[in-house]
C-alpha cells in the first residue's frame, strides 16, 4: 500500500508504447552514470553500456511481448524528468525494466506515480507474477520497491 502524498502539480504524465522510448534517453543517461558510480563488481557493465544498446535490448524483449512506458514531464519546460519502462513477456511475467526520476525531482511522489501506472498496466495484461531486477550496489532502492510489495526472493550471481 502506497502512502498518499501531495503530488507535485507542475508535473504531467504521459503513457504509451515503444514509440516513447527515445524520450527517456537523457534521464537514462543520468541513471547509467549513477549506476556506474555505485555498482560493486559490475561497474564496467554500466561504463560500456550505451543508450542505443539498452534500447535494442528492450525492443528485442518487446518483440516477444508488450512494452509500456510512463513519462513524467516538467509542466514548465516539457522536459522529461522521470520515466518507467515495463514489459509483459509471452510467459505473462511482468517486469519493471527501468525506473528513474532526476535527482532534483525526487521524494515528491513522482516515482510512486510512475510505478503505480506501470503496475496497473502489468495487472491489466493479466501477468502471473511481477519482478524487478535491482543491481548490486543499489540496495537503497529496496525501500521504494517494498512500498509496492516487492521483496528480495533470491540473489543471482553472474560471472564477470
Ligand atoms: C527510486 C526512485 C525512482 C524513487 O523516485 P521518487 O520520485 O523519489 O519516489 P517517491 O517520491 O515516490 O518516493 C516514495 C517513497 O519511496 C521511498 N524512497 C524513495 N527514495 C528513497 C531513498 N533514496 N531512500 C529511502 N527510501 C526511499 C520513501 O519511502 C518515499 O516516501 P517519502 O519520500 O515520503 O519518504 C528514485 O530514487 C530514483 O530515480 N533513484 C535512482 C534510480 C534507481 O535507483 N532506480 C531503480 C533502479 S532498480
Q: What is the makeup of the main sheet?
A: 5 strands, mixed
* Structure summary, number of beta strands: 5
Q: Looking across the biggest beta sheet, what order are the strands in?
A: 1-2-3-4-5
Q: Total number of helical segments? A: 5
Describe the structure.
- With 160 residues, the chain is an alpha+beta fold.
- The chain is built from five helices and five strands.
- The chain has a five-stranded mixed β-sheet.
- A hairpin with a 5-residue loop joins β2 (66-74) and β3.
- The longest helix has 15 residues, at 110-124.
- The chain is globular.
- Residues 1-6 have low confidence and may be disordered.
- The site of coenzyme A (COA) has 20 residues, from α1, β4, α4 and α5.
Question: What can be said about this structure in brief?
Answer:
This protein has helices at residues 25-38, 43-48, 51-63, 110-124, 142-146, and strands at 11-16, 66-74, 80-88, 93-101, 129-132. With 160 residues, it is α+β, with helices and mostly antiparallel strands.
Keywords:
single chain, five-stranded mixed sheet, 5 helices, globular, binds coenzyme A
Amino acid at each position: 500500500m502506497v502512502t498518499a502524498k501531495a503530488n507535485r502539480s507542475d508535473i504531467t504524465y504521459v503513457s504509451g508504447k515503444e514509440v516513447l522510448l527515445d524520450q527517456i534517453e537523457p534521464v537514462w543517461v543520468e541513471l547509467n552514470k549513477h549506476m556506474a558510480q555505485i555498482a560493486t563488481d559490475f561497474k564496467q557493465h554500466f561504463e560500456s553500456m550505451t543508450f542505443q544498446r539498452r534500447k535494442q535490448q528492450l525492443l528485442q524483449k518487446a518483440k516477444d511481448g508488450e512494452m509500456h512506458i510512463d513519462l513524467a514531464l516538467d509542466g514548465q519546460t516539457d522536459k522529461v524528468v522521470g520515466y518507467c519502462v515495463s514489459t509483459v513477456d509471452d510467459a505473462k511475467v511482468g517486469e519493471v525494466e527501468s525506473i528513474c526520476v532526476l535527482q532534483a525531482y525526487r521524494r515528491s511522489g513522482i516515482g510512486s506515480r510512475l510505478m503505480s501506472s506501470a503496475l496497473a498496466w502489468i495487472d491489466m495484461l493479466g501477468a502471473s507474477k511481477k519482478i524487478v531486477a535491482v543491481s548490486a550496489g543499489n540496495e537503497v532502492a529496496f525501500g521504494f520497491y517494498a512500498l509496492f510489495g516487492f521483496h528480495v526472493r533470491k540473489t543471482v550471481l553472474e560471472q564477470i
